[in-house]
C-alpha cells in the first residue's frame, strides 16, 4: 500500500533534494520525485519562499541560493555581441552574476535577477536573448549597465575586475552613480 506525503513532508523533501543537488532541478523532476504535478511544485516553492527559504528559479530549474562571502558592483559597457564573453569571463573566474541593472535617464533604475553561475547558464541566457523578442537591458543605455557579482573571496572579485578591465568591458563610475544605483 502506497502512502502519500503531506504538504509539509513534500516541501521538506523538496528542500532536501535542492540542498543535495549541485545542479538546478526542474519543477517536473521535483514533482515526479515527490509524486505530484509540476504545478503543485510551483505552489510548494512559493510557500517555501514565504517561509524564508532561499529558493531561486533559474532557466534550468530551481536551486537553493548559496550565500557568498562577498559581492561587488561593476559598471560595464559593451555590445550585445560581447555579452557571452563578458559573462563567461565572470563565471570562469568563480563569480556569479546576480543581476543586471541600468540607470535610465527617463525610466530610472531598472533591474532584473540573472543568477548566472556557469557557462551553461551563460549559454541558456544568450540563447534566450537570441531566440526571444526582447533585447538585453544594455541596449537602452548605449551598452552601459551594472552587475552585482558575488564570489567566495575578495581576491576572486579582484581577479574578475582585472580581467574585465583588460578586455575593455569595465566603465568608470560617475561621481554619483555607485551610491545612486545601490539604493
Automatic annotation (TrEMBL):
Domain named 3H: residues: 75-170
Keywords for the protein's UniProt record, in alphabetical order: Metal-binding, Nickel
Start and end residues of each Helix-turn-helix type domain: 10-62
Ribosomal protein as UniProt keyword: no
GO molecular function annotations of the record: metal ion binding
Protein name per the record: Transcription repressor NadR
Annotated Pfam families: 3H, HTH_11
Binding site for Ni(2+): 78, 86, 145, 147
Amino acid at each position: 500500500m502506497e502512502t502519500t506525503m503531506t504538504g509539509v513532508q513534500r516541501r521538506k523533501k523538496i528542500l532536501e533534494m535542492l540542498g543535495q543537488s549541485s545542479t538546478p532541478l526542474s519543477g517536473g523532476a521535483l514533482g515526479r520525485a515527490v509524486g505530484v504535478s509540476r504545478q503543485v511544485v510551483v505552489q510548494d516553492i512559493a510557500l517555501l519562499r514565504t517561509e524564508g527559504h532561499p529558493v531561486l528559479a533559474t532557466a534550468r530549474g530551481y536551486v537553493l541560493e548559496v550565500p557568498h562571502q562577498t559581492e561587488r558592483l561593476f559598471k560595464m559597457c559593451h555590445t550585445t555581441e560581447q555579452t557571452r564573453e563578458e559573462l563567461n569571463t565572470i563565471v570562469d573566474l568563480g563569480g556569479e552574476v546576480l543581476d543586471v541593472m541600468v540607470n535610465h535617464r527617463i525610466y530610472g533604475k531598472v533591474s532584473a535577477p540573472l543568477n548566472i553561475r556557469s557557462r551553461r547558464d551563460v549559454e541558456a541566457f544568450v540563447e534566450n536573448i537570441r531566440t526571444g523578442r526582447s533585447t538585453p537591458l544594455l541596449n537602452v543605455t548605449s551598452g552601459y549597465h551594472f552587475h552585482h557579482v558575488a564570489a567566495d573571496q575578495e581576491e576572486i572579485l579582484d581577479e574578475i575586475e582585472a580581467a574585465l578591465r583588460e578586455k575593455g568591458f569595465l566603465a568608470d563610475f560617475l561621481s554619483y552613480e555607485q551610491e545612486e544605483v545601490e539604493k
